[in-house]
Structures are given as structure tokens and as C-alpha cells.
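Minutes, structural biology subgroup

Action item carried over from last meeting: produce the C-alpha cell record for Impact N-terminal domain-containing protein (Cutaneotrichosporon spelunceum). EB confirmed the sequence was re-checked against the source entry. Recorded below for completeness.
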Amino acid sequence: MSKRPSSPTVESAPKRARQLDAAPALAPSLDSWLKSSPSAPPAPPPLLASSPPLHASSSTFIAFALSFVPPPTVCSQETLKKEAARAVRALDVVRLVGAELLASDDGAFANGESRAPGRRAGKERAREPDHRTWAVRTLALAEGKDGTSGEEDYQLLEASEDDGERFGGERVLRTLRELGGVDVLCIVCRWFGGDMLGPVRFTYMATVAHTSSKELVAMLTRRELRAVLVGLDSEISDMRKTIAGPKPPEEGEKAPVPPSYDDIDDVERLQRLVKARELTQKSLEKRVGCAALEQSGAE
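Output recorded by EB:
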């Protein structure tokens, strides 16, 4: 099957964005994570980033951006909206940021507001947000396609939901479009404390959506570049073995440990490393060809 088109790349995101529950480089899709069997080994969650809380009057806004690769059954806006809505409901917002919001004592959480009874007597927790306004953009298989014909088998699908914030979903979707975000689901949560904010609330929603989504797209870019580097390192290692010729293993010799790039967060540095590996690969390809000619001549 042909490779699914990749998401576009962006520059590094603002430092204020947070990475939450980040998964390893080859994390499963959001769909497979949510559908994983309880008896199966726990699968890592998809990539997840959040904005810092934005407190305005008696309201608080936070946005979450999740990596979103739809299952093959999603081939229309309607099916995409159903799949995304299920993921939005599954996001445990209170577990992720509840303690931080309570400690802030600001916005909707000022003066002990927006509390809910905790599981233990005498304990409180943050209440659920009043609104979960969201938007999603993703590449999905076109109806009747299976991906074997390449990129033309895929279509860009978009969906959004206001959840009580009229026109809010479209505003979040516009932010994703401006970023060029693909395979991204952005959820803007609002805790309403009673004071009406008027149209400025859409500016606040766009601000937190931009912060979290830009960080997530950068995370997706870093994950893809790291995977490319691992693949190139493997190919380069095999080519060097071919050039060196057959070599019996020495007693006690251990297999070399492949390098890890998980500690490199700078997108530009990862891109430079990819270019360097590609140049090395091209150089070795010529030597592999020469080695093959020498071997055939010796035979």
C-alpha cells in the first residue's frame, strides 16, 4: 500500500505551549488508542499538547491539540465529525489540568469557584468545562479508495463543533487552516463564570488554539524527522557492511547501539541531520556500486 501523505512542517512552537503525555516516535493513531482492548498491553496515547490557561474576567480558556489519524471508515465530513466527537468526549480535561486550574485561583476559578466534589470526602476538584469547542483537519481515504494509487486516493476533510459557542468551531478551524495543520484535532475548553465577554471571546479562543496547535504540529514534525533519521541510519549501516565485505563476528562482540534522537527538539537541527545523512547515503551508494563490481570481477 502506498504511503499516506505526510503532514506539513512548521517552525518550532512557542515555549509557553506544553507537551502532555507525549508518545514515542511510532505512537498509534488516536483511533487505535481509543479502541485498544483492556486485556491488551497498554498502548501509548497519541501526541497531545496544551496551551497555558488564559483567564479573562470570570472565564478561563485552555486548548488541547491532539494528533488525529482517522480509521479507513472515515471518508466523509459526517463520519469524520462522529469520530472526532468521540475523541473529544474521551479527553479527560480535569485530570490533565484540573489541579493547575484550582491552584491558579483566577478567572473562572477565582475565590473558590468552579469546584466540584472530589472522590474523597472533603476533597474538591475542578468541574468540567462548560464548552468544548473543537475543529479537526485530516487526510482521509476518499470513498471507494484504498490508498494503493498514492496521494490521489486521499482527501482533506474538515469538521467543527460550536458546543454552545456560536461560530466558535469555525474560528478554531480557521486557526488550523492558518497554521496548515493536518491530522490535528484542536479542542478549546471554556469555563464560564457568569460575566459575558462578547466578541472578544473569539480572540481568546483563537489565541489558545493557535498556541496548542502550533506546538502539536511541531511535535508531529519532530516525530517524522526522527523516524526518517532512524531509517537513514539503518540504511547507511547496511551499506557500510556491504562495502566492508563479509566479516566473521569477534568473540564477545556486541551489536552497535543505534543512535537516539529523542532528546533533540530543535526542528531545524533535525532537518540538518536528515540532509547530512542523505548526503552520506548518496556517497556510499557509489562505493557500494564499486564494491559490487569488484566482487563480480573476482568471481
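Discussion: The chain has two domains: 18-220, 225-243+258-298.
Next step: EB to file the record with the rest of the batch.
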